[in-house]
Structure formats: structure tokens, C-alpha cells
Write a structure and sequence with these properties.
By secondary structure, this protein is an alpha/beta fold. It has 3 domains: 4-74, Arc Repressor Mutant, subunit A (Orthogonal Bundle), CATH 1.10.10; 80-195 and 381-393, Nucleotidyltransferase, domain 5; 205-374, ATPase, nucleotide binding domain (Nucleotidyltransferase, domain 5), CATH 3.30.420.40. The chain contains 14 helices and 17 strands. A hairpin with a 3-residue loop joins strand 6 (80-86) and strand 7. The termini are close together. The structure holds zinc ion. Zinc ion binds next to helix 7.
């Protein structure tokens, strides 16, 4: 029962997506929303019920004559998925049930200076603890979505960059985590995952929008008609490496003036550190794996009214606004979402400046005033998106082959 075929969502995938986002629907509503015939929907739904993935939950009376419609919903405990977002300075793990609801969540330190081997070992232990604590049986977990910065080779499950340290380049991330967890693991881009997580949360009032993701670095994602825009190799929308006019700082990617190098959290922290008195006043420490914690100290100082903190953050926000203009112009967007752990406190400041840049410069401004929103889940959206990617991508059969000690009424076969 594949969710995708030749890169397109299958009928089964569409039905599961609709039930996952809408909660409950009748067969008639499913037919209406998919454009399929009633007979085709009946066939797909029967298979899903036989496989224990969908069940009937009641009836809605119909106007006038006729049978009441039976409502369908996903069986939440039929399967689960794990999302693991890892960054140099923060990590988040979430467990979602088959209906996409959050069952468990944990926030922990990032990879720090530790290499990939040690980092993945720690993450695998935390995933095991979280599954145990939440009573989710391992054999009911479809897989894990490992969410990191790009660029990535998703097929081979490796990073194509020497960030955060040289040993991460080409390290078999998904293979190693899969072996440790005993589960299939997919690699996903953090900004793309956050965009999808945000779309799923239903907070964005459009199915076409851009997202800027800021953790230790800066990434971008675009949702087009409800699906992630992936480019050729899922390394699309690297907005952190758009060169900004007037920028000159050398970037890790080898170019000059990239948004990440000019305005990313690490750069803001370094600017504070360059002013001893300011660093002391804001309590900024400058530890290599403490970028987000330091950035958060600067943001809280801005929030308290500290002028020095405000100046540096405003400068960064205007640069990000310039990158947002490019994002909006390239993809013809009218909505941009800001997500990622750097926006916990600083979100409103960035929202204001990015919106101002878009109102001044985005080509679409003549048609509609561009809207900038701060994600409602700045910390967890990426991990949630990683778990959703698993629910939507890994075919049920892959896991059904493995011995399952699940209640017989679920009848997965
Ligand atoms: Zn760059």
C-alpha cells in the first residue's frame, strides 16, 4: 500500500492524508475531496479498514431521506512514527501516532562538539526511553525521520557538508541510526520538515507559503499546493546561502555575503562577543555548542529593552528580510512563516522587520500585502515534520513483514 508512486501521492495516500488533516470524514466527503468515484473510495476504504488503519466512528444524520453517513477516522494506535531533529545546539524528539497526534516529546542538547557516531548513540537511547515511557511498542513504529540542515543526499542518508564538523561529511547517518534503533530511518531537511509540520498544524491559512528556519544556521522551505517543493534532490530553497547586496562576510559554503554568514545566530553572538561590556551585560558566553542559548540571552535582553541587543538583532532581521524578498520573488508567495529555535523570543522582532522589507521590496506587494507569521511551534515543527514524512512515505508493508505482537483486531497483514 504505497503512499507515493513515481513521486505522486497514490489514492490510498490521499485518503490517509485527508483523514489525518481533517480528523473524521464520510466516504461521500472523501469522494468529493479526491474527485474519485464512490465505488473507488468504497474499495480503498474497505482495504484500509481490513488492514486496521481506519475505523468507523459514528454516523451523521443526513438532511431529508437516506441512510445516515458513517464517519471514518484513522486508527491512531495502529502505527507510530518518530521525528528526530538534530542541530549543533539543540535536538528535539517527538513521537506521533498514526493520526499525527503528538504522543511524546523531549528536548535535549544538540550534537555539540561530539561526532556523529556519539550523537546518534545518545539520540537512539533517548528515542528508546521515550518509546518505553509512552508505552509505544517498537514493532508498531513505522520508522524515524532524522531532520538536519542541508545539503543532504537523502537516498544515501548522508550530509554533503562538513558542518558542524568535518566528520559529519558523508557519515552514514540513516544507516547508523537505523541499526541502533532497529527501525527504518529517512533523512529530511529541517526547513522543509518545519514547513510541512507547520502546514500540518493548520495554522497557516494558505497551502502555498515559504518558511525561513533559523537554528544554528538558516534554511528555507516552500510548500506548494500543500506539498513540499523539493527540487531535484531535496536540497531546494537554501535561503541561508543567498548572497545579500552589501554583504561581504566569507561563508562556510565558500561564497561571500550569504544571509547565514551576515545575519545568522552565530554571527549575532560573535558581534556581541566583540564588545566585552555588552557580552558581560547580556551574559553571552560564546561556547561553541551554546549558540542558541546565547542568542536567546540576546533576544531576552532585547525584550527587556536593551538597546545594544536591539541594534544587533534589528540589523540581522533586516538582512533576513532581504533574503525573504528573494524567497517571495522566486516563488510568488504572499505568506512567509518564521520557524526554528532561534525565534522563541526574537520571533516578533524578526516578523516586524521581515514584513517591512517585504512591504517595501517584494514584487507581489502590488497585488497583496505579504504576510509574515511566527510559527506556533518554533521548537518542535521540524521534528513533527520529520515524523509526518515517515507516516506519509514508508509503506506499511515494509513494517508488516516484521513479526508483530500487536492486538489481533488490528489485523495488519
Ligand atoms: Zn553560504
Amino acid at each position: 500500500m504505497p503512499h507515493f508512486e513515481d513521486g505522486r501521492v497514490t489514492t490510498t495516500g490521499r485518503v490517509l492524508d485527508l483523514l489525518r488533516t481533517r480528523g473524521t470524514l464520510s466516504r461521500v466527503e472523501l469522494a468529493g475531496r479526491t474527485g474519485l468515484t464512490a465505488a473507488a473510495i468504497t474499495h480503498v476504504v474497505r482495504r484500509l479498514i481490513d488492514d486496521g488503519l481506519v475505523h468507523e466512528v459514528g454516523r451523521v444524520p443526513r438532511q431529508g431521506r437516506g441512510q445516515p453517513r458513517r464517519l471514518l477516522e484513522l486508527a491512531p494506535d495502529s502505527w507510530y512514527a518518530v521525528g528526530v531533529q538534530v542541530d549543533r545546539t539543540t535536538s528535539t524528539i517527538v513521537v506521533l501516532d498514526f493520526a499525527g497526534e503528538r504522543v511524546a516529546e523531549a528536548g535535549l542538547r544538540g550534537s555539540g562538539g561530539a561526532g556523529p557516531e556519539a550523537t546518534l548513540a545518545v539520540l537512539a537511547d533517548h528515542v528508546a526511553d521515550l518509546l518505553r515511557a509512552s508505552g509505544v511498542p517498537r514493532e508498531r513504529v513505522l520508522g524515524a525521520g532524522l531532520v538536519t540542515h542541508g545539503p543532504q543526499d537523502q537516498e544515501r542518508g548522508v550530509l554533503l557538508t562538513a558542518q558542524p564538523e568535518p566528520e559529519w561529511l558523508e557519515f552514514p547517518l540513516t544507516g547508523t541510526l537505523s541499526e541502533r534503533l532497529g527501525l527504518p530511518v529517512l533523512l529530511e531537511n529541517d526547513a522543509t520538515a518545519a514547513a510541512f509540520g507547520e502546514q500540518w498544524a493548520g495554522e497557516v491559512p494558505t497551502d502555498t507559503f515559504g518558511l525561513i528556519y533559523m537554528a544554528s544556521g538558516i534554511g528555507g522551505g516552500v510548500i506548494v499546493d500543500g506539498e513540499s517543493y523539493r527540487g531535484r534532490a531535496s536540497n531546494a530553497v537554501e535561503i541561508g546561502h543567498v548572497a545579500l547586496s552589501g554583504g561581504s562576510t566569507v561563508c562556510v559554503c565558500g561564497n561571500r555575503g550569504c544571509a547565514q554568514a551576515e545575519a545568522g545566530p552565530r554571527t549575532v553572538v560573535e558581534q556581541v562577543l566583540a564588545d566585552g561590556a555588552l557580552a558581560e551585560r547580556l551574559g553571552v558566553k560564546g561556547e561553541a555548542d551554546g549558540t542558541i542559548a546565547d542568542f536567546e540571552r540576546i533576544a531576552r535582553a532585547w525584550h527587556r529593552g536593551d538597546r545594544g541587543a536591539a541594534e544587533l538583532l534589528e540589523r540581522s532581521a533586516r538582512w533576513i528580510g532581504q533574503a525573504a524578498v528573494t524567497l517571495v520573488n522566486l516563488f510568488d508567495l504572499d505568506t512567509v512563516v518564521l520557524s526554528g529555535p532561534a525565534f522563541v523570543t526574537a520571533g516578533p522582532l524578526y516578523r516586524e522587520h521581515v514584513a517591512a522589507e517585504l512591504e517595501r521590496r517584494a514584487l507581489s506587494r502590488a497585488l497583496r500585502r505579504p504576510e509574515v507569521r511566527v510559527s506556533t511551534n518554533v521548537i518542535t515543527a521540524a521534528a513533527v515534520g520529520g515524523a509526518l514524512h515517515v507516516l506519509r512515505t514508508i509503506p506499511i508493508e515494509t513494517r508488516s513483514d516484521t513479526p508483530v505482537s500487536a492486538p489481533t483486531h488490528e489485523g495488519a497483514s
